[in-house]
Every structure is written in C-alpha cells, then in structure tokens.
C-alpha cells in the first residue's frame, strides 16, 4: 500500500494542495491517515478517489454534488463519461484506476474504444506513450506495484501483437528487411512491437529478434544476411555505460544504420556515438522519421 503526502497527491492528480485540503475539510471527500508519530499521509484508496473526483470536476460536476455521491456512484459516472469522451488524458486516468483494481475488462474497453475512434498509430502516440510515462511515475512513488504495471504492460503488448498479426500478408518479400531487437537491460517491448507493426503495415518484412543478451547474438546474423538497418528502443530514463559500449561496438561491427528510439529525453551529445547511430527522441514525428529510415512514403 502506498503512502502519499499531500504534495504527492498534487503531483499525481494535478489538483493543487490547497484545493485538496478544502475538499477534505469542507466535504470530507478524502480522509488522511496518520502514522504513529501523527504525520498525515494518504493511501491508495484515497488517491483513486481523488483521481475520480478530479475527473468529474473537469467534466462539469460541482464538488458539492460529488460529495453527495457514494463510491460506487462516482465510479459509475466516471466510467460513463470516459466512454463518451475521446480525450486521452481522461482515458489515461481511468485506465490507471483499472490497473489499480486489476480490471482487465475496463482497461481493454478504454484501449479498444480509443483505437476504434482514433486508430492504433494515434492511440500509441497520444495514449500508450503518455500512459507509460504515468506508470513510471506511479511505480516510482509506490502508487502501483510492479505486478500492476506488468498487468497493464501485457495487455498492451497483446493488443500490439494482434495488430502485427493482421499485417503479415501485406509485406513485400523483395523489400528491405530491417532488424528489430532489444538489448539488456531493456525488457519493455512496447516500442519495438509498435515499430514492427508500422513497418509491416508499410510492406517491410521485419526480422524481429526480441531481447538479446550479447553482441555475439548479432554477429552471425550480420555475416549471413544482407542487413541494411537495425532498430532498437529504450524505455529506461538513462543510457548505462554498458548499453553505450554495446551500441558503439555494434556500430563498429555493423556498417549499416542503427536507430535507437528513446521513450525519455536523454542527452546523448557527449556519448561519442558514431555517425551510423541515429537517436530518435520523439514519437510524434515517427512517420517522418521512418520515411527517412526507409526512403519510402509511410502511409499513416
């Protein structure tokens, strides 16, 4: 169970600490706990309630009205409004509540509704990537457990794999075949699976390797196949020294282009990467970036 200060609630919900205190004292919407030394803190249940209350306020409900609703009534109204809304930030908040409660049905409903309305590509950039950033914060602050974040990860991963399978008959066997892989300590496949989907959708027969553990895993492949491009991704907020050394050694072994997609903004200017390593920082321009990788008009 997480323990949060009022500043933590402000950071996680976007509601000012002063407003939270007013809601607490005037309406009793959330109730702080106290440590044995009488220090106030808030638990997971209070955070979930605050996220739901703030969602209703942003959608036109008066706080005095919300205060009269039961926990179940608040949840029902949030679910109803979120199904009507296409706003990604609202959907994300409700997906987080679903993750906290291991509610697979509602999580899938939010995700699929957004895909139907906006398409998978826009859902990835506007919903899945921002959700990943939020989950990182919630995990770091012990709001969510590793088990809860893995629960969400595998649901998104499963959806991407289904999308990839739907594109298997579309590739051109004569087209360039880029290699996609992950290198330790990276374990998150979400970015690499999305890139595989985009490439397959546009006719490229991707060679997807998943996670590799050493450079030797790629050496024979480079010798046997006429590989022109390699693509990898990193969801961690830092590039470790071992990861940096791996990329530099790979660039010496492989003369083609290596593309590294980063989830977090990382300054790579002083890492000494050779010219054939291309760092991609933004997913909002992924179509343009993939066009430059392949010299091909990507259809989005």
Structure description:
With 300 residues, the chain is α/β, with parallel strands linked by helices. It has two domains: 6-163, Multidrug-efflux Transporter Regulator, Chain: A, Domain 2 (Orthogonal Bundle), CATH 1.10.1660.10; 169-294, 3-Layer(aba) Sandwich (Rossmann fold). It is 55% helix and 10% strand. The chain has helices spanning 6-13, 17-27, 44-58, 63-66, 71-84, 88-100, 104-140, 146-165, 190-201, 216-224, 241-253, 286-294, and strands at 33-34, 40-41, 179-183, 207-212, 229-234, 257-262, 277-280. A hairpin with a 5-residue loop joins strand 1 and strand 2 (40-41). The protein is elongated, with a radius of gyration of 22 Å. It starts with 5 loop residues before the first helix and ends in a 6-residue tail after the last helix.
Looking across the biggest beta sheet, what order are the strands in?
Answer: 4-3-5-6-7
CATH class of the largest domain: Mainly Alpha
Kindly give the count of domains: 2
- Strand content of the residues, in percent? 5-15%
* Number of E-type strands: 7
Shape: elongated
Q: Give the radius of gyration.
A: 22 Å
Number of helices: 12
Low-confidence stretches: 296-300
Main sheet makeup: 5 strands, parallel
Order of helices and strands: HHEEHHHHHHEHEHEHEEH
Determine the mean pLDDT: 83
Query: What is the second-level CATH architecture of the largest domain?
Result: Orthogonal Bundle
- CATH fold group of the largest domain: Multidrug-efflux Transporter Regulator, Chain: A, Domain 2
């Amino acid at each position: 169970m997480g323990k949060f200060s009022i500043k933590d609630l402000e950071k996680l919900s976007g509601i000012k600490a002063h407003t939270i205190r007013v809601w607490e004292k005037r309406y009793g919407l959330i109730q702080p706990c106290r440590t044995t030394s009488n220090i106030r803190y808030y638990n997971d249940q209070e955070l979930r309630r605050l996220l739901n209350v703030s969602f209703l306020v942003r959608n036109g409900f008066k706080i005095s009205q919300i205060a009269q609703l039961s926990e179940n009534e608040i949840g029902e109204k949030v679910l109803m409004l979120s199904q009507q809304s296409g706003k990604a930030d609202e959907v994300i908040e409700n997906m987080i509540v679903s993750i906290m409660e291991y509610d697979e049905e509602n999580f899938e409903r939010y995700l699929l509704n957004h895909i139907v309305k906006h398409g998978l590509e826009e859902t990835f950039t506007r919903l899945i990537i921002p959700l990943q950033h939020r989950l990182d914060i919630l995990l770091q602050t012990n709001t969510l457990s590793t088990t809860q974040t893995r629960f969400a990860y595998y649901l998104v991963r499963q959806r991407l794999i289904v999308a990839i399978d739907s594109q298997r008959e579309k590739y051109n066997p004569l087209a360039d075949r880029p290699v996609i892989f992950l290198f330790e300590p990276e374990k998150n496949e979400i970015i690499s699976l999305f890139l595989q989907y985009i490439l397959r959708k546009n006719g490229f027969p991707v060679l997807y390797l998943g996670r590799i553990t050493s450079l030797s895993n790629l050496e024979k492949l480079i010798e046997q196949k006429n590989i022109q491009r390699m693509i990898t991704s990193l969801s961690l907020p830092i590039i470790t020294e071992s990861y940096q050394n791996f990329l530099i050694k790979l660039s010496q072994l492989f003369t083609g282009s290596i593309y590294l997609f980063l989830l977090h903004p990382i300054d790579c200017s002083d890492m000494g990467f050779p010219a054939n390593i291309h760092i991609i920082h933004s997913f909002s321009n992924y179509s343009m970036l993939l066009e430059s990788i392949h010299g091909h008009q990507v259809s989005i």
